[in-house]
Write a structure and sequence with these properties.
By secondary structure, the protein is an alpha/beta fold. The protein contains 20 helices and 30 strands. Among the domains are: 148 residues, Rossmann fold (3-Layer(aba) Sandwich), CATH 3.40.50; 122 residues, GMP Synthetase, Chain A, domain 3, CATH 3.30.300. The protein is 31% helix and 22% strand. The structure holds adenosine-5'-triphosphate and magnesium ion. It holds the Pfam family ACAS_N.
Length: 649
C-alpha cells in the first residue's frame, strides 16, 4: 500500500495554509513533549469566563480511568459560537440552508442565529429546563437543529441528538437511557421527498415508555406544516414558545468538565454507547481541528454534508465552524435527490470552497460514472474531506479527479464519536497525500500499533490501533456506566485506549486504517483486513460497493464471502462472478480470492452510511436468526433480500 502514488502539497494549498510541514512537525513534537504548555496556549483560542490554571489531568489505568482538561476554567459553548463573533460578524451568514427541494433555501446570519438561540434558551428555561437537565433533539437538518444544540449549551442543558431517521423504539430507548426531560422535534422531516412523521414517532416512543417516560415537555417545530396530535400541557409549538421570549439570554457559566452532550455511536458493531463529551476540551478540539484540518479562513464557504444526528454534524457542522465564525452550508436532503447531480449543484450554487463528505456518498455518485458532476461548475472548491470509513483508493481518485478536478487536496480524517474530532488526518498545507491513508496524527494525539498481546510494535507494522494518552476532545465516560467505559476502551490493552480499528504504519509513519479488528479475516492462517479486499473489489469496473466477511470453512478456517452491489447498468452473471474472483486473485493474492460472491441491489448500512458487516457475517454463517441490534439499520428490506438469496445454506 505504501508504494502507492504520493501527492505532494500543492502550491495553492501552501499559499493559503496556516501550517507548513515544518511547522506541523515542530508543533506536533511540542504537543506531545510538553502537553501542558502546548494546551495551555491553545486553550486560549476560546473565550473563558474564568481562565483555567490547570490543564491536563488524566489516567488510562484500568480502575482509575479519568480524563480532565482545563478543569478549573469556566466558559459557555454557545457564547463561544455566537456572542463573541457579533461585533465583527453580526451580518455574516452562519448557515446557507438548502432545503430538500431545490429552490427552497434560507440564509441565517450570526445575529439571527444568536437571537433565535436566546429565545429558545429562554423558552426552555420557562419550561423548567436548566443546567444538567437532559434534552433529546429529534430534528431534521433545518437551522433549528443548530439552534437547539446551542440553546441547550447556553443554559447548560445536556443535549442528546437522535438521528431523525430513527424509529420510535430507537428514540424511546435513547430518551430513557439518558433520562430526558424535554424533547425538541418537528412535525415531519423531509429527505429525498420522503416524509418521516417525527412528532407521531415521538408520541409513539413516549407512549410505549408508559410509566418510564421521563419527558415533561415536547417542543415542536412546524416544518412541513403537517397537523399533529397535540398533548395539552406537554406539547408546545416552537414558534409559540419563542414569540414571547426576549432576544437576550445570559449564558450559563459552565465548568470545563461539565457535560455538553451525550451522543450514541452508530451501532456498527453492536448496541450503541452513550458517549459523553464535556465543554472545554471538546470545544478546543472542535475549533482547532476545524481550523487546521480544513485550513478554514474568513470568507470561505464550508460544507460538511453530514447529518447533525452524527458526531460529524456536532463537531463539523455546529461547534467547530461556529466557534471559528465560519460560513457553512447546511443541507436538508440526500445526495441523490432529485438526481445524482445534487451535490455538485449545491457546490456550484453557493460557490463552496471546502466539501466534507463520506465514502458511502462518493461511491453512490461514482456508480453513475461521471453523471454526478456533469454540467456543474466546481471551480470554487479548493479542499475535499472524507470521513466515516476507510476511503477506497478508487473512490479517492474519483473524488480527486471528478470533484476536485485534480486541484484539491483530500483530507481523509480518521476519528470516532468517542474522539470528539479528527485524530489522524492530513493537514492540507503540510501533508503529502497517499490515497487511502489517513496519514499522521493531529496535535497531542499519540497513536500506536500493538499486537494481540498488547506489545507496542515499531516502525512499519500492522496490528491494533491504540492511543497512548488523552487529548482534550476525547469522551469522558459512557453516560451512566463508567464501568462500561473502562471495559470497552481500556481493558483490552493495559494503559491504552483501544480504538477497535486495525491499522498499518508505513515507512513514512503514515497510518492506513485496515477496518475494524472484529472484522479481520483469518484465512488459512493469513490475517486479511476487510478494507484492502473491498478496495480491490470497488476498483473493478462492474462494482459499485462491496463488503467482505468471513464464514466458517472446513479447510481454511474462514472462507471469504463477498457481497457486491453492481454499478448502474451492470447485470451480474456467472462469468462476471468468475472474472471478479480472478481480479482479486491477480490484484492482491490467491489467498484473498473470494469463495462466495453474492450480488445484491444494496448492502446493509447504518443510517450514517457505514456497511454493517456484523449483519453480513451472520448471513454468511447462515445464522440470520440472531442478527442482534438492528435498530440503527437504514433499510431492513435490504437484509431480507440478502437472506433470501444467501449462498451458504
Ligand atoms: P459503534 O461504535 O456503535 O459500532 P461506529 O464505530 O460506526 O459505531 P462512529 O463513532 O460513528 O460509530 O464511527 C467511528 C468509526 O468509523 C471508526 O472507529 C472507524 O472504524 C470508522 N472511520 C471513521 N473515519 C474513518 C476514516 N477516515 N478511515 C477509516 N475508518 C474510519
Ligand atoms: Mg465505534
Amino acid at each position: 500500500m505504501s508504494h502507492q502514488q504520493l501527492y505532494p502539497v500543492t502550491q495553492a494549498a501552501l499559499a493559503r495554509t496556516y501550517l507548513t510541514n515544518e511547522q506541523y512537525l515542530q508543533m506536533y513534537q511540542q504537543s506531545i513533549k510538553e502537553p501542558e504548555q502546548f494546551w495551555a496556549e491553545h486553550g486560549r483560542r476560546l473565550d473563558w469566563i474564568t481562565p483555567y490554571t490547570k490543564v491536563k489531568d488524566s489516567s488510562f489505568e484500568l480502575g482509575n480511568v479519568h480524563v480532565n482538561w482545563f478543569s478549573d476554567g469556566t466558559l459557555n459553548a454557545s457564547y463561544n459560537c455566537l456572542d463573541r463573533h457579533l461585533p465583527a460578524k453580526a451580518n455574516q451568514v452562519a448557515y446557507f440552508w438548502e432545503g430538500d427541494e431545490p429552490g427552497v433555501q434560507k440564509a441565517v446570519t450570526y445575529q439571527e442565529l444568536y437571537d433565535e438561540v436566546c429565545q429558545l434558551a429562554n423558552g426552555m428555561r420557562s419550561l423548567g429546563v436548566g443546567k444538567g437537565d437532559k434534552v433529546t433533539i429529534y430534528l431534521p437538518m433545518i437551522p433549528q437543529a443548530a439552534v437547539a444544540l446551542l440553546a441547550c449549551a447556553r443554559i447548560g442543558a445536556v443535549h442528546s441528538v437522535v438521528f431523525a431517521g430513527f424509529s420510535p423504539d430507537a428514540l424511546g430507548s435513547r430518551i430513557v437511557d439518558c433520562d430526558s426531560k424535554l424533547v425538541i422535534t418537528a412535525d415531519q422531516a423531509l429527505r429525498g421527498a420522503r416524509t418521516t412523521a417525527l412528532k407521531d414517532n415521538t408520541d409513539l416512543a413516549l407512549g410505549h415508555l408508559g410509566a418510564a417516560n421521563p419527558v415533561k415537555h415536547v417542543i415542536v417545530v412546524k416544518h412541513v406544516g403537517q397537523n399533529i396530535d397535540e398533548h395539552a400541557g406537554r406539547d408546545v409549538w416552537y414558534h409559540d414558545l419563542l414569540a414571547a421570549q426576549p432576544k437576550h439570554c445570559e449564558p450559563e457559566p459552565m465548568n470545563a468538565e461539565d457535560p455538553l452532550f451525550i451522543l450514541y455511536t452508530s451501532g456498527s458493531t453492536g448496541k450503541p454507547k452513550g458517549v459523553l463529551h464535556t465543554t472545554g476540551g471538546y470545544m478546543v478540539w472542535a475549533s482547532m481541528t476545524h481550523q487546521y484540518v480544513f485550513d478554514y479562513q474568513d470568507g470561505d464557504v464550508y460544507w460538511c454534508a453530514a447529518d447533525v444526528g452524527w458526531v460529524t454534524g456536532h463537531t463539523y457542522i455546529v461547534y467547530g465552524p461556529l466557534a471559528n465564525g465560519a460560513t457553512s452550508v447546511m443541507f436538508e436532503g440526500v445526495p441523490t435527490y432529485p438526481n445524482v447531480k445534487r451535490i455538485a449543484q449545491i457546490v456550484d450554487k453557493y460557490q463552496v470552497n471546502v466539501l466534507y463528505t463520506a465514502p458511502t456518498a462518493i461511491r453512490a455518485l461514482m456508480a453513475h460514472g461521471t453523471a454526478a458532476v456533469e454540467g456543474a461548475n466546481l471551480s470554487s472548491l479548493h479542499l475535499l474531506g472524507s470521513v466515516g470509513e476507510p476511503i477506497n483508493p478508487e473512490a479517492w481518485h474519483w473524488y480527486h479527479e471528478q470533484v476536485g478536478k485534480g486541484q484539491c487536496p483530500i483530507v481523509d480524517t480518521w476519528w470516532q464519536t468517542e474522539t470528539g474530532g479528527a485524530l489522524i488526518t492530513p493537514l492540507p498545507g503540510a501533508t503529502a497525500l497517499k490515497p487511502g491513508s489517513a496519514t499522521r496524527p493531529f496535535f497531542g494525539v499519540i497513536p500506536a500499533i500493538v499486537d494481540n498481546e498488547g506489545n507496542l510494535l515499531d516502525g512499519t507494522c500492522e496490528g491494533n490501533l491504540v492511543l497512548l494518552d488523552s487529548w482534550p476532545g476525547m469522551m469522558r465516560t459512557v453516560f451512566g456506566d463508567h464501568d462500561r467505559f473502562e471495559q470497552t476502551y481500556f481493558s483490552t490493552y493495559k494503559g491504552m485506549y483501544f480504538t477497535g480499528d486495525g491499522a498499518k504504519r508505513d515507512e513514512d509513519g503514515y497510518y492506513w486504517l485496515t477496518g475494524r479488528v472484529d472484522d479481520v479475516l483469518n484465512v488459512s492462517g493469513h490475517r486479511l483486513g476487510t478494507a484492502e479486499i473491498e478496495s480491490c473489489l470497488v476498483a473493478h469496473e462492474a462494482i459499485a460497493e462491496a463488503a467482505v466477511v468471513g464464514y466458517p470453512h472446513d479447510l481454511k478456517g474462514q472462507g471469504i464471502y463477498v457481497f457486491i452491489a453492481p454499478r448502474v447498468g451492470v447485470e451480474p452473471s456467472d462469468d462476471l462472478t468468475k472474472a471478479v474472483k480472478e481480479w482479486v486473485r491477480r490484484e492482491i493474492s490467491p489467498i484473498a480470492s473470494p469463495d462466495l460472491i453474492q450480488w445484491a441491489p444494496g448492502l446493509p448500512k447504518t443510517r450514517s452510511g457505514k456497511i454493517m458487516r456484523r449483519i453480513l457475517r451472520k448471513i454468511a454463517a447462515n445464522e440470520h436468526d440472531s442478527l442482534g441490534d438492528i435498530s440503527t439499520l437504514a433499510d431492513p428490506s435490504v437484509v431480507e433480500h440478502l437472506i433470501e438469496n444467501r449462498l451458504n445454506k
